[in-house]
Write a structure and sequence with these properties.
mainly alpha; Serine Threonine Protein Phosphatase 5, Tetratricopeptide repeat; single chain; 10 helices; 2 strands; 12% strand; two-stranded antiparallel sheet; disordered C terminus
């Protein structure tokens, strides 16, 4: 029994070590080391490790008798990341096109489909287009991914008619948590619109015979 416990702890420690090495390799652009880590049978591609990132901060400095100036500072901080998060971040820095549509949708669609919320937020921050975000929202509503839907409800990126589509999509499939999320995050910000949307969604629910969902605003 003690031997089995020792082996388990050893393998767990080794798995953590090699997985952290993958994250560091991705962070430092060491592709050779990254591929070596990926070839290891003990690698955990979803391991959450720690790296140091630099954050750019700007501050307006006012002077009494001189021109104001903008002070730029860089702050280093440690944060939890995954290898996927690090690689996507690097690709965006090097100008990867987040709005390139492939056979099964945009990068945002793939991130939504896999429930990779951190990646999705990176793509949105990397100037994902309105169409890319809307398609990802529809994907989330189709699969019942409430947290993903919430991450996509960014002001000015989702049009009201697409929100209606997503609501109907989710309600017809019985995804009450997605419907509730969409109403809370987006529709409550525009009462006049929300009443109209609620009426439309309620009509679809009654017409399709889906159970009683509370869509009151």
């Amino acid at each position: 029994m003690p031997t089995t416990l020792f082996v388990h702890r050893f393998l767990s420690h080794f798995k953590e070590k090699i997985s952290q090495r993958l994250i560091e390799a991705a962070h430092t652009d060491d592709l050779k080391l990254a591929f070596e880590c990926l070839a290891d049978p003990f690698i955990d591609a979803n391991f959450v490790g720690t790296v140091c990132l630099n954050s750019r901060k700007t501050e307006m400095v006012l002077h009494d008798e001189a021109h104001s100036e903008v002070r730029v500072e860089f702050e280093e901080f440690k944060t939890d990341v995954t290898a996927l998060f690090t690689l996507v971040r690097k690709l965006l820095i090097f100008g990867a096109n987040v709005n390139k549509k492939l056979f099964r949708g945009y990068a945002t669609t793939a991130a939504a489909r896999g429930s990779h919320i951190e990646i999705l937020e990176l793509l949105i921050g990397g100037r994902a287009s309105q169409l890319a975000c809307e398609e990802a929202l529809l994907e989330a509503s189709h699969l019942g991914l409430a947290k993903v839907a919430k991450a996509l409800m960014v002001p000015k990126l989702i049009r009201p008619n697409v929100a209606v589509h997503a609501l109907v999509n989710a309600s017809c499939r019985g995804f009450a948590d997605v419907v509730e999320t969409l109403l809370k995050v987006y529709l409550m910000k525009a009462k006049s619109t929300s009443k109209k949307l609620t009426k439309q969604v309620s009509g679809h629910i009654e017409g399709d015979g889906v159970g009683h969902l509370s869509l009151s605003v």
